[in-house]
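Here's my example:
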Amino acid sequence: MDISDLYSEKILELAANALQPPRLAHPDASARKVSRVCGSLIEVDVVVRDGVIAEYGQYLSACALGQTSAAVVAREIVGTTTGDFLRLRDQMHAMLGGNGPVPDGKWADLAYLEPVREYKARHMSTLLVFDAVAEALGKIESAQAVAAAN
């Protein structure tokens, strides 16, 4: 497989038609991730209510693969439980890192990224959004733990 095969029409279509939710004025937490390999960058903001992601914003400067991941996340994340999102993140890592299954249901468009598995140098940019959201969710969990302890 040639690297240009990664950029299927569907990948390019998802990236080109991506929803770009604006940054949130008052997020519960934010996180920033940068790919050391290609320089792709994402900053995310999340608001969580009762274990469900209620609001989401992002700033993105990424390649088509990172744009595709971020596009699907931006489109589907609101209304997702934090646990379901963290399982999705693990599933994406498993899909790219080995022979893990592709996401399905509302996340089915992420399956178009399965060929990235063969290009380890592209894994980080493809996974940026998942790792950034997971970091933000971790910050919220830590803050809740501190508040509960006081």
